[in-house]
Structure formats: C-alpha cells, structure tokens
Write a structure and sequence with these properties.
Length: about 130
C-alpha cells in the first residue's frame, strides 16, 4: 500500500516555472515506477511523464518534452516534476501515480496501469 500526496501547485504566468513534489508513505517506495498525469476541466486524465524505480530512465509526453523534468529521491520517498516554460495549456490538476514495476526502461503511459494515486494539485498558468 502506498499513499501519495502532491504539493507545489499554484498560479504562475506563462513562461514561468513550478516544481511539483509527490511524497509517498509506505514501504518499498523504490520498487515503484512513478508517473505524473494531468487533467484539465472537461478532459481526460493524460500522461505527462514517468520514471523507473531506479530513476535511470524517464519518458515524456510530446507536449512537455524539453520543458518538464521528472526525477525522484528514493531516500526521501519523493518524486518531482520540474516544469519550465509553462504555457496556458498546461493548466490542469496534476496527479502523481505509482505502480509496482522493476523494469529498467519500460514506461506505462495508460492511467489504468497505475495502482495508486494522489489527490492532485492545481496548476494554473495565466497568459
């Protein structure tokens, strides 16, 4: 069982940056691959980024590639999403998710592949 709590969301102007954090409680955080998803009003929850259990491999949606960076600190049971060059279309509730996975470089991009979810944090980018 893993509990996830996101933080770091807020209001930022276009071109600005935010760093989201997702703190995990429970054992064996390092055995979980982690992902970030986002959901804008009236839209589906979409994949943003993922990172393998070791942090050795990352994967991004095309819409955020080159602007967002996912990372993790297994000693602190935390995963991060650094978001730079933010655009109004990045506005959404951002969720972190976990799945038990020891793959070195497989990345799950479907929300149904993740077992645990946080409550979400709102990110609003003004133009």
């Amino acid at each position: 069982q893993v509990q996830l709590v996101e933080s770091g969301g807020g209001l930022v102007q276009a071109g600005g940056s935010l760093r989201l954090s997702c703190a995990a409680s429970g054992r064996s955080f390092s055995s979980y691959a982690m992902g970030w998803f986002r959901q804008a009003p009236g839209k589906e929850r979409d994949f943003v980024a993922s990172i393998t259990w070791s942090g050795g491999s990352t994967y991004y949606a095309d819409s955020v590639k080159g602007r967002f960076t996912i990372s993790r600190d297994n000693a602190k049971n935390t995963v991060f999403l650094q978001m730079n060059s933010l655009k109004p279309e990045d506005t959404a509730v951002y969720y972190c998710a976990a799945r038990a996975d020891y793959s070195r470089n497989y990345h799950a991009t479907n929300r149904g592949q993740y077992n645990y979810w946080g409550q979400g944090t709102q990110v609003t980018v003004s133009s």
